[in-house]
C-alpha cells in the first residue's frame, strides 16, 4: 500500500515494490453499483443529507478510481453507498481493484480519465501526474472548500497538502506511519517491556534472544520497510529531531548527504546486526513471508506500515494483540519519530463531472467518514479528531495518539527519486548482512545522487 506506500518518482521498479508491499490478490472490479451491503448509519445518513449551501443537485455519470491494497475496500463500499443515498440521481461507477491503476493507465494517457482518483498503489505518482497535466488545480478551491458539516477542509487536515510549484493538486486523506510492530500479549506473557528508546530496544532484544526467539525480522526483498521504519527515523533523531535533512536528501542536495546524522542512523542498524538480533531469513523473503514468521512468534519485532494487520487478517492467531511504536532508534529521553506516508484524493483535469467530484471530496472529508475509515481500513485518516471512542482497532488508536502527541516528531511524507530510493534499498540490505560499511552505504547512494544532478 502506499500506504502505505513509500512514495518515489517514476520508475517501474519502484512501482513494483510498492505493489508488493500493499497489494492483495482480490480480483479487479468495475461496477456501476455501489455495494448494497451496509445500510447507512444514522450518523452517516445525517452527513449524507447535509450539503454545502448552494450545492447543485448532482446528476449524470460519476466515476471513481480507487486502488484496493492492504487497507481493503470496506470503507470505499460504505462511503460510496452513503454518497449514492444522498445523491440518488447520480450514476456512480467504481473502477477498483489491486491492478486498477495499471488497467486505467491507457485511459489517463488518452485523456479519458475517471472523475475522481485515489492516488495510492503502483502506477500512480502524484508528481508525475502533475507534470503530465492530468490533475485539476485545486489551489483556489481548497482554500475555502467546506465539508458536508460546514467545516473548512483545510483546517481539518493533520498534514497539509503538498505543493507543486506553489499549487495544490491533491489532498491527503490517509495518514499512515511506518513503525515497529510487536505482540502485546506475548510481551505480557513473557514479562517484556515495550521499548521506549534504543537502549530499551537492545535490552529487551537480549531477553528475547535468550528465550529462543529472533528479536527482529524485516522484508529483505523490499528494503523500503526497514528504511522507512528504522533508518529514516534514526537519521531524524540523530539530526536533533529536524526532519528537514530528509527533505534536503530527497531533493538531491549533495551537501545534505554529507551530514554525519546519516552515519549515526546507519550505525543503529549496524548495532542491531552485530548483536545477532536480525533473523538471517530476512535477506531473501518478501513482505508476507516475514509477516507470517512474525505472527508465528518466530520473530518479536517487525518494521512495517499500519496496513499489516488488515493485510494479514486471515492469518492472525487468536489472542494476538498488535502493539505499534513509530520508532525505536531514539536515544534515552529522545522524542519518538513518526515517519508518515499519505495517500491522497484528486480530481482529473479532464473529468467529465467535476461538480460530483468536488462534492464527493467534500463528503469524504467529514469527521464521520474519517472515523469510519479508521474503523474499516485499520489506519488513521488525515482528518484531525479523537477516535478513542470509535470502533477502530487498538493499534490504530495507539498510532493516532503518537501522531497527535507533542512528544512525537511527525515527519511529512518524503519522496526520493526512484533511482536514489532503489540505491538506498539495495545498500541497506547489504548493510544488514555486513557486506558493506555505513560509509560505503553513503558512497553508493551519493554516487547515484550525483548522477541525478547531471
TrEMBL record:
Coiled coil: none annotated. Residues 1-19 form the signal peptide. Pfam families: SBP_bac_1. GO terms for biological process: transmembrane transport. It comes from the Bacteria. Keywords: Cell membrane, Lipoprotein, Membrane, Palmitate, Signal, Transport. The keyword Membrane applies. Gene3D superfamilies: Periplasmic binding protein-like II. The keyword Cell membrane applies. Belongs to the bacterial solute-binding protein 1 family. This is Extracellular solute-binding protein. The lineage of its organism: Bacteria, Bacillati, Bacillota, Bacilli, Bacillales.
Amino acid at each position: 500500500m502506499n500506504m502505505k506506500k513509500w512514495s518515489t518518482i517514476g520508475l517501474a521498479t519502484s512501482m513494483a515494490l510498492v505493489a508488493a508491499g500493499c497489494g492483495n490478490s482480490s480480483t479487479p472490479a468495475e461496477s456501476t453499483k455501489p455495494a448494497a451491503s451496509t445500510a447507512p448509519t444514522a450518523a452517516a445518513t445525517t452527513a449524507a443529507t447535509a450539503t454545502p449551501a448552494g450545492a447543485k443537485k448532482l446528476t449524470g455519470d460519476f466515476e471513481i478510481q480507487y486502488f484496493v491494497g492492504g487497507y481493503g475496500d470496506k470503507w470505499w463500499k460504505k462511503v460510496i453507498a452513503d454518497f449514492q443515498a444522498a445523491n440518488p440521481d447520480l450514476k456512480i461507477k467504481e473502477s477498483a481493484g489491486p491492478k486498477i491503476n495499471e488497467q486505467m493507465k491507457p485511459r489517463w494517457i488518452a485523456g479519458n480519465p475517471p472523475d475522481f482518483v485515489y492516488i495510492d498503489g503502483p502506477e500512480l505518482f502524484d508528481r508525475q501526474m502533475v507534470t503530465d497535466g492530468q490533475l485539476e488545480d485545486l489551489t483556489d478551491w481548497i482554500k475555502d472548500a467546506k465539508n458536508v458539516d460546514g467545516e473548512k477542509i483545510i483546517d481539518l487536515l493533520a498534514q497539509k497538502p503538498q505543493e507543486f510549484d506553489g499549487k495544490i493538486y491533491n489532498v491527503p486523506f490517509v495518514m499512515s506511519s511506518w513503525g515497529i510492530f510487536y505482540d502485546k500479549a506475548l510481551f505480557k506473557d513473557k514479562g517484556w517491556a515495550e521499548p521506549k528508546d534504543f537502549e530499551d530496544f537492545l535490552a529487551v532484544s537480549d531477553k528475547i534472544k535468550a528465550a529462543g526467539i529472533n528479536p527482529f525480522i524485516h522484508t529483505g526483498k523490499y528494503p523500503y520497510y526497514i528504511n522507512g521504519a528504522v533508518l529514516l527515523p534514526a537519521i531524524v533523531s540523530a539530526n536533533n529531531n529536524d526532519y528537514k535533512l530528509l527533505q534536503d536528501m530527497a531533493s538531491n542536495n549533495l551537501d545534505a548527504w554529507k551530514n554525519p546524522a546519516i552515519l549515526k542512523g546507519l550505525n543503529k542498524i549496524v548495532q542491531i546486526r552485530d548483536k545477532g538480533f536480525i533473523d538471517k531469513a530476512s535477506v531473501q523473503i518478501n513482505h508476507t513471508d516475514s509477516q507470517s514468521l512474525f505472527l508465528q512468534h518466530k520473530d518479536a519485532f517487525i518494521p512495517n506500515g499500519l496496513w499489516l494487520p488488515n493485510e494479514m487478517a486471515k492469518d492472525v492467531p487468536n489472542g494476538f494483540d498488535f502493539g505499534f511504536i513509530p520508532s525505536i532508534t531514539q536515544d534515552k529521553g529522545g522524542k519518538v519519530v513518526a515517519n508518515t506516508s499519505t495517500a491522497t484524493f484528486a480530481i482529473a483535469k479532464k473529468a467529465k463531472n467535476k461538480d460530483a467530484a468536488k462534492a464527493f471530496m467534500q463528503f469524504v472529508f467529514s469527521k464521520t467518514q474519517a472515523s469510519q475509515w479508521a474503523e474499516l481500513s485499520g489506519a488513521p485518516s488525515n482528518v484531525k479528531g479523537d477516535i478513542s471512542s470509535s470502533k477502530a482497532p487498538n493499534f490504530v488508536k495507539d498510532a493516532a495518539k503518537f501522531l497527535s502527541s507533542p512528544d512525537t516528531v511527525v515527519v511529512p511524507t518524503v519522496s526520493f527519486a526512484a533511482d536514489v530510493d532503489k540505491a538506498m534499498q539495495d545498500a541497506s540490505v547489504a548493510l544488514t548482512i555486513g557486506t558493506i560499511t555505513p560509509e560505503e552505504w553513503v558512497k553508493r547512494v551519493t554516487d547515484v545522487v550525483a548522477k541525478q544532478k547531471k
